[in-house]
Amino acid sequence: QQPVQSPQAVILREGEDAVINCSSSKALYSVHWYRQKHGEAPVFLMILLKGGEQKGHEKISASFNEKKQQSSLYLTASQLSYSGTYFCGSTSTMNRDDKIIFGKGTRLHILP
Amino acid sequence: SQTIHQWPATLVQPVGSPLSLECTVEGTSNPNLYWYRQAAGRGLQLLFYSVGIGQISSEVPQNLSASRPQDRQFILSSKKLLLSDSGFYLCAVSRGSYEQYFGPGTRLTVT
Hints:
The complex is a heterodimer.
Chain A (H helix, E strand, L loop, with lengths): L3 E3 L2 E5 L4 E6 L6 E7 L6 E7 L5 E2 L3 E6 L4 E6 L8 E8 L9 E2 L3 E6 L1
Parallel strand pairs in A: 2-11
Antiparallel strand pairs in A: 1-3, 3-8, 4-5, 4-9, 6-7, 7-8, 9-10, 9-11
Chain B lengths: L2 E5 L2 E4 L5 E8 L5 E7 L6 E8 L2 E4 L5 E7 L2 E6 L8 E8 L6 E2 L3 E5 L1
């Protein structure tokens, strides 16, 4: 099943914070986050594994709630360069050959 | 680290013409390879994936096919393109970890 992302789109001013959610009806083993700028390929941001630690650095981080089958991406003090479409993808097993199922994406637009 | 090449970068083809898109990978061996298609403003649709030479799994029945003639080469083909085949075709690679990386993509316009 395709994970559900929310919101579908968000507009922020530079310096504001954003949270993008990704939820699944199936048990999750891994959650993958990507950012795609217009006309470019998706760029890998981070991966969270079941039982693993929260990932990220100062400005971009993510959490993984196994019980709720949900992950959230946190963008702190957003910069203009954060604009783009964010995709989450998920797998349900620890099999490294398991296919990633992607959500429909969240469009983020940062205004100066 | 691995490098993913996709060729060509852009392509305009008439309906009914054949298609061949190529993806090659450097810097890793025995990778898992994937073909995705992204329609304009849409999400990522997995088309094919391969865990080894000659091993292809199809996700969506359509007029496309894929082949993996060499360990680090993945080819997407069609005998007759449809208008609905237009899109951004992305090759992706994973190797030994759960992380998956995308190539630069090929933008296909079918006219």
